[in-house]
């Protein structure tokens, strides 16, 4: 019995550390992607206030995600759950800010290097994928095996703009490579999880499907005449 308890404890510890590692990996990817844009002069700290609000919101979520995983590694599940309710409110704020900025970026013509329909589809589908996966994770919060994996997938999808910037850095930015990059990050998380449990949890498959659908919609929506007309017809607004 003691051996079984010891083995279970070891598995739980490795799993928690792996999820924290993945959270830190997402932060590192964001630093590389957005750091490159700053280094290349594509983005600047002289951007409008709403750009900074959006950036702080998304970076704040990555920090919050690392904190939540750190609490789990330390075994402070009570604090993790209390902060989880705050996280639900934070997620609502992310969706509101993300949808607004996706629209306002287009009407202020700050969507380059993407055209209007592509920029709008990229931002809105990115937020939609996060919202759907987060909602599923929140509703399944009492089933920790599903909750933690769906939350990881939600955050991986939310961090997608960093992947796009990383691909641009290497001159490989297409919708196909972008989608494959997101799915590859989920696959990395899934592979590490498999190495610990020797099985693939179905939550990862939901994440992969969500990422594939997000990528497909980002590539398809700009080609649809009604969506393209809507995006191109948005009235200019003051910067």
Shape: globular
The total of helices stands at 9
What is the straight-line distance between the termini? 66 Å
What's the structural domain tally?
1
The proportion of residues forming helix, as a percent range, comes to over 70%
What characterizes the major β-sheet? none
What is the mean pLDDT? Answer: 88
SS-derived structural category: mainly alpha
Determine Rg (CA atoms, Å): 19 Å
Poorly predicted segments: none
Strand residues, percent: under 5%
The counted number of beta strands is 0
Task: Give, in order, the helices and strands.
Answer: HHHHHHHHH
Overview of this structure, please?
- The chain crosses the membrane at residues 18-37, 49-71, 83-101, 121-138, 150-172, 178-196, 203-229.
- Keywords: Membrane, Transmembrane, Transmembrane helix.
- Helices cover 81% and strands 0% of the residues.
- The chain has 239 residues and is an all-alpha fold.
- The protein has one domain (12-232).
- Helix 1 runs antiparallel to helix 7 (175-197) and helix 6 (160-169) packs across helix 7 (175-197).
- The protein starts with a helix and ends in a 7-residue tail after the last helix.
Task: Set out the fold topology.
Layout: H1 2-39, H2 49-74, H3 77-107, H4 116-139, H5 144-158, H6 160-169, H7 175-197, H8 202-220, H9 225-232
């Amino acid at each position: 019995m003691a051996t079984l308890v010891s083995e279970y404890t070891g598995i739980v510890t490795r799993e928690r550390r792996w999820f924290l590692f993945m959270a830190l990996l997402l932060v590192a990817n964001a630093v590389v992607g957005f750091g490159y844009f700053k280094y290349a002069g594509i983005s600047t700290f002289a951007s409008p206030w709403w750009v900074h609000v959006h950036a702080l919101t998304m970076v704040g979520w990555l920090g919050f995600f690392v904190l939540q995983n750190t609490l789990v590694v330390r075994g402070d599940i009570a604090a993790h759950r209390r902060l989880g309710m705050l996280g639900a409110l934070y997620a609502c704020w992310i969706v509101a800010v993300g949808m607004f900025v996706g629209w306002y970026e287009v009407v202020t013509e700050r969507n380059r290097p993407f055209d209007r329909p592509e920029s709008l589809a990229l931002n809105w589908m990115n937020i939609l994928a996060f919202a759907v996966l987060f909602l599923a994770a929140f509703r399944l919060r009492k089933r920790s095996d599903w909750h933690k994996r769906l939350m990881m997938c939600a955050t991986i999808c939310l961090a997608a703009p960093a992947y796009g910037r990383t691909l641009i850095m290497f001159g490989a930015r297409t919708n196909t490579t972008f989608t494959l990059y997101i799915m590859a990050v989920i696959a990395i998380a899934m592979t590490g999880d498999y190495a610990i449990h020797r099985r693939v949890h179905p939550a990862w498959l939901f994440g992969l499907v969500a990422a594939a659908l997000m990528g497909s919609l980002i590539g398809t929506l700009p080609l649809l005449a009604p969506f393209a007309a809507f995006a191109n017809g948005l009235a200019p607004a003051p910067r």
